């Protein structure tokens, strides 16, 4: 079946709860400390992208690893909506989700032997939490501050599944901002019932405590017309109206407590509610009666000769078909300890 894409979809997630608790102290702290000869560039420099691929904030130009990173400004300017768009703009990265649950990122051609394998050669993380299944790795870009693609073997840093590289999703989280409250409101309106809206708030009542909240929603009806006679039927789960639409929500809450330079406590919660419709498709097989040469079965040819038929502007998709429907909760907590300089 040929899969036709006019607008790339968004998040595809796993319906489980993940938790990661990190305690760094003693020798573990040294691995997270800033190198003496590498100064992290200030975040307010418009020409600098800060990455955390080595578990500390660094100027991407100072990291001796091949990294491609996209921040929120790049999401908007380059119309990045999902991992398919990231791969389109990242040298050495390719991605195919095979219309549903077999998402497969490949870095530098090192692909796994089966797309149905539970584990892959590229590890994917959200805020340091490993996402273990292929159908869960395409998180989209709503509620994210940055996406980092780390290329080359990273097993020593990220684990054995990072044989060819890793993908890091960095979500919006609380930040201490001198007893201030800040926030942003975003929105997009387009044709085919396209609507995106989001709000983010960060509140820092003291010099040592901050909390943040965000809500994002993206809806779209799709661009391919569905010629099925029941295309407009109202179903709780299904493909209604056009083909290839979605209705995705993301909610996050986080806090940061940093009473001193040597101790900090942080926690975050992220929820992703994803409803992706089926995509448009065109079958060039026996059932479509387009085969025209070769041996026959019951009078029907088994092969096709000549140029393949061009993709049509419409699709016939059963409204009961769906893409990915999931609801995901991810909780993360971390205690950070850093020894005083001698």
Nutshell version of this structure?
By secondary structure, this protein is mostly beta strands. 6% of the residues lie in helices and 44% in strands.
Taking all residues together, what is the mean pLDDT? 77
Distance between the termini: 65 Å
pLDDT < 50 stretches:
1-44
What proportion of the residues form beta strands (DSSP E)? 35-45%
- Number of helical stretches of at least 4 residues: 4
Q: What is the chain-wise order of helices and strands?
A: EEHEEEHHEEEEEHEEEEEEEEEEE
Sketch the major β-sheet: 8 strands, mixed
Instruction: Give the structural class.
Output: mainly beta
What is the alpha-carbon Rg in Å?
Answer: 23 Å
Tally of strands: 21
Shape: globular
Portion of residues in helices?
A: under 10%
Notable characteristics:
342 residues; mainly beta; eight-stranded mixed sheet; five-stranded mixed sheet; 4 helices; 21 strands; 6% helix; disordered N terminus
What does this 3D model show about the protein?
The structure is a single chain. Helices cover 6% and strands 44% of the residues. With 342 residues, the protein is mostly beta strands. The strands form six sheets. Strands 2, 12, 13, 14, 15, 16, 20 and 21 form an eight-stranded mixed beta sheet that branches. The longest helix is centred in the first third of the chain and has 6 residues, at 27-32. The radius of gyration is 23 Å and the shape is globular. The N and C termini lie far apart (65 Å). Residues 1-44 have low confidence and may be disordered.
């Amino acid at each position: 079946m040929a899969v036709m894409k006019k607008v790339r979809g968004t998040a595809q997630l796993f319906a489980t709860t993940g938790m990661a608790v990190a305690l760094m102290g003693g020798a573990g702290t040294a691995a997270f400390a800033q190198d003496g000869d590498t100064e992290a560039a200030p975040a307010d420099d418009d020409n600098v992208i800060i990455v955390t691929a080595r578990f500390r904030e660094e100027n991407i130009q100072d990291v001796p690893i091949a990294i491609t990173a996209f921040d929120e400004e790049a999401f908007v300017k380059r119309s990045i909506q999902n991992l398919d768009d990231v791969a389109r703009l990242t040298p050495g990265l390719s991605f195919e989700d095979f219309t549903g649950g077999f998402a497969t990122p490949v870095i530098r051609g090192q692909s796994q032997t089966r797309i149905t394998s539970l584990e892959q050669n590229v590890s994917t993380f959200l805020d340091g939490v490993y996402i273990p299944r292929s159908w869960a790795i395409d998180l989209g870009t709503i509620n994210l501050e940055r996406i980092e693609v780390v290329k080359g073997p990273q097993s020593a840093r990220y684990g054995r599944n990072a044989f060819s590289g890793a993908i890091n999703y960095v979500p919006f989280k609380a930040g201490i901002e001198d007893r201030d409250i800040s926030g942003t409101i975003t929105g997009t309106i387009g044709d085919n019932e396209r609507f995106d809206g989001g709000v983010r708030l960060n509140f820092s009542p003291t010099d040592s405590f901050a909390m943040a909240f965000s809500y994002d929603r993206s809806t779209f009806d799709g661009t391919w017309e569905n010629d099925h006679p029941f295309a407009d039927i109202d179903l709780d789960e299904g493909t209604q109206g056009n083909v290839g639409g979605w209705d995705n929500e993301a909610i996050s809450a986080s806090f940061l407590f940093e009473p001193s330079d040597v101790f900090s406590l942080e926690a975050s919660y992220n929820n992703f509610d994803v409803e992706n419709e089926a995509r448009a498709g065109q079958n060039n097989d026996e059932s479509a009666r387009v085969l025209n040469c070769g041996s026959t079965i019951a009078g029907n040819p088994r092969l096709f000769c000549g140029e393949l038929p061009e993709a049509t502007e419409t699709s016939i998709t059963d409204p009961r078909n769906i893409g990915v429907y999931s609801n995901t909760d991810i909780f993360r907590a971390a205690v950070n300890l850093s020894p005083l300089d001698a």
